[in-house]
Amino acid sequence: MGLTPPWDDFYRVLCDRAAVALAATDEHFNIVFWNQAAQALLGPAADQVLGKPLHSVVPPNRRKLLQRLLHRTVRRNETSQFEVRLTGTDDHARDLMVVLSPIPSRNSQACGIAAWVIDETAQKQMAQRLAQAEKMASLGTLANGVAHHFNNILGGVATFVDFALSSNDLIAMKRALQMTAEAAARASKITQSLLSFANTGRQREDMADLTEILLTFVHLVERPLGQRRIHVQLDLKAIPVLPVEANRMHQVLGNLLANAEEAMPDGGTIDISIARQDNEIVVGFADTGCGIEAKYLPMVFEPFFTTKGLLAGGDKANPGLGLSIVHGLVRELGGRITVLSECGHGTRFNIFFPLPADEGGL
Fold first, then answer.
1. Do residues 300 and 293 make contact, with C-beta atoms less than 8 angstroms apart?
2. Please, are residues 236 and 214 in contact by the beta-carbon 8 Å criterion?
3. What is the DSSP letter of 339?
4. pLDDT (tens digit, 9 = 90+) per residue, 286-329?
């Protein structure tokens, strides 16, 4: 089914009958091979696409990206990949993963591109169903945590109010009202934290360069941390200017710092770094504290999860919202966050922000 395939009959038939869609191009990125699986998955028959540019078979909104990746694959002599969504005549969308790999010539220079196309629709639908199930389970945990904290707060408020109503001692009444106000403030803080975790669709404001935000944050906290025998190390690589909301990013860093301080009661080191990794900017925040047990790592970003607060049998009034707030804020800033930890060897959070398209992002 190719124009002038360079393979013998065995390899030509092998590629043509492969279960995965495969297309190959010449050095000008024109299609020279189109197997049966590509025809079944993508629609056009081989005689309709042979000799045409590879980008002609992808949706218009992904053609510029494909062109960049084709040139990068040849230039770097390495594999690239991207996702594309195709909508058929029946409005049924399919999610495809396209993997581009160079076809080397005898002198090891790429003389074409092999494009493998994998239908990931079923896997993505399964992942979405699983995510929905996990979301419902998390909502149950969230409701239980909210009910527990608000029952405690409201129970205390009722006690304070009853005492104030039954007492003729003005000093005691004032103290009861102060305790009621403190309880209401705790309830308000939990509510605001939950809003920070769930809030989306806000207008972006107070923008500043990410590197400058890190420098400002370290300048503000370095001296008080030194008094607690905590040393801050900075490793800031040169990256493109990346504007983010300064107030929200400071809140992210502040919550991570509070988590690190709690893990290092006797002092230690905090490493803050920033670097470019492919098409993303990575902010690292690591401590040398007690670490997190592996069984707890999947739950650290869940609301009300804590191993030290009262809900976990600890002795601290910690509702377990700090890292869930961090997760919500990072998501709202357009990024994602991961955690790595080992008991006795500290914890590292990595925050990933995509680069804008004009800076080389995809």
1. no
2. yes
3. E
4. 999 999 888 888 888 877 666 654 433 444 445 566 788 888 88
Residue from 194, 31, 180 nearest 113 by CA? 31
115 touches 32 (CB < 8 A): no
Digit-coded pLDDT (tens) for 187-200: 766 666 666 555 54
Beta pairing partners, 338: 350
CATH 3.40.50.720 corresponds to the domain 203-362: no
Q: How far apart are CA 166 and CA 177, in angstroms?
A: 13
Domain ranges of the chain: 9-119, 122-198, 203-362
| Listed ranges 149-163, 229-243, 315-329; the one with the highest mean pLDDT | 229-243
Query: Per mean pLDDT, which range of 11-25, 189-203, 239-253, 338-352 is the poorest?
Result: 189-203
Residues 6+ away with beta carbon under 8 Å from 110? 27, 73, 74, 77, 102, 103, 104
* E strand spans, 182-238: 207-209, 230-236
Q: What dotted CATH number matches 9-119? A: 3.30.450.20
Q: Look up tokens 């914890």; give the residue.
A: 347
C-alpha to C-alpha distance for 69 and 73, rounded to whole angstroms: 6
Q: Residue 308 carries which DSSP code?
A: S
Strand residue runs (E) in 47-92: 80-87
Q: Do residues 113 and 119 lie in contact, with contact meaning Cβ atoms separated by under 8 Å?
A: no
Q: What is the pTM of this model?
A: 0.49
Are the C-beta atoms of 328 and 335 separated by less than 8 Å?
A: no
